[in-house]
Write a structure and sequence with these properties.
Blueprint lengths: L3 H12 L3 E6 L6 H13 L4 E4 L9 H11 L4 E3 L13 E7 L5 H18 L2 E9 L7 H6 L9 H13 L4 E5 L10 H9 L5 E4 L5 H10 L3 E4 L1 H5 L3 H10 L6
Parallel strand pairs: 1-2, 1-8, 2-3, 3-4, 4-5, 5-6, 6-7, 7-8
Helix pairs in contact: 2-3, 6-7, 7-8, 8-10
């Protein structure tokens, strides 16, 4: 099984080097939008492009991934909301297990369905403990998963959930307040989780200002993911990327 991106993230974590990922929803991205995002991301030295969403209703996923791969060399990582959101043209897949919820389908059930195709895909499989945090507004992922998010002020629950995910073998932990969150995850929660796990920590949801991206990284996030804010203003890519990459590495 390939492990290049996971290995790279682990090495970056050791040195304190932060990464920035742009999340692209195939339902909202036509060729012209993709071209703009690709150009801006390449110039801004974005580290990864995530493709997917909680509810992909178009048949554009393969075309979207292929278009990106044909026009830039940035790693494309799938961020699937269901077993059908898999494209063989991607570089890697966040194999998400919703460890913050109690829905067995999203803990293991849908993985059983998708396992044969994922195994044959040839791309890198990235076992990821997915933790949904209350962002102050109902989100698609909460509705689809039929699972309540962790309350925004329950730092200890988030910490214990992340620790359990790591001990169960998850190579990455992804904390998400959800697309369009009214409030992002607090730095205090990020710090407590980051201080108690060794796996790289991905943080997303509700990050609309470069300063917040910077503060999240200072608190311990290793990868910042922004999608919704960039859909509204693609020019934010440059500022967000600069903020994330300006965090000092470990001496």
């Amino acid at each position: 099984m390939k492990s290049g991106i996971i290995k790279s993230l682990a090495e970056k974590k050791k040195t304190g080097k932060k990464s920035f990922a742009v999340l692209i929803d195939p339902d909202k991205a036509n060729a012209s939008i993709l071209d703009e995002l690709i150009e801006l991301s390449s110039v801004a030295k974005v580290d990864y492009l995530l493709v997917g969403g909680s509810l992909v209703i178009s048949n554009y996923l393969d075309d979207c991934v292929q278009h990106i791969k044909q026009n830039c060399d940035l790693p494309v990582i799938l961020f699937p909301g269901s077993p059908t959101q898999v494209s063989k043209y991607a570089d890697a897949l966040l194999y998400l297990s919703l460890i913050s919820g109690r829905n067995p389908e999203l803990l293991i059930g849908q993985h059983v369905v998708s396992a044969p195709f994922v195994k044959q895909s040839g791309f890198e499989i990235m076992p990821t403990g997915y933790i949904v945090i209350d962002g102050g507004a109902p989100t698609t992922v909460s509705y689809i998963s039929n699972a309540s998010p962790i309350p925004a002020d329950k730092n200890e629950i988030a910490m214990c959930t992340a620790m359990a995910g790591e001990m169960l073998g998850m190579k990455l932990i992804y904390m998400d307040a959800g697309s369009g969150a009214r409030r992002p995850i607090t730095e205090s929660m990020i710090k407590l989780v980051a201080d108690n796990i060794e796996a790289p920590l991905i943080v997303g949801g509700g990050i609309i200002h470069p300063e917040k991206a910077y503060l999240n990284c200072k608190a311990g996030a290793d990868v910042i993911v922004v999608g919704n804010a960039i859909e509204k203003d693609a020019s934010l890519i440059k500022e967000m990327s600069a903020a994330v990459h300006s965090v000092p590495a470990k001496v």
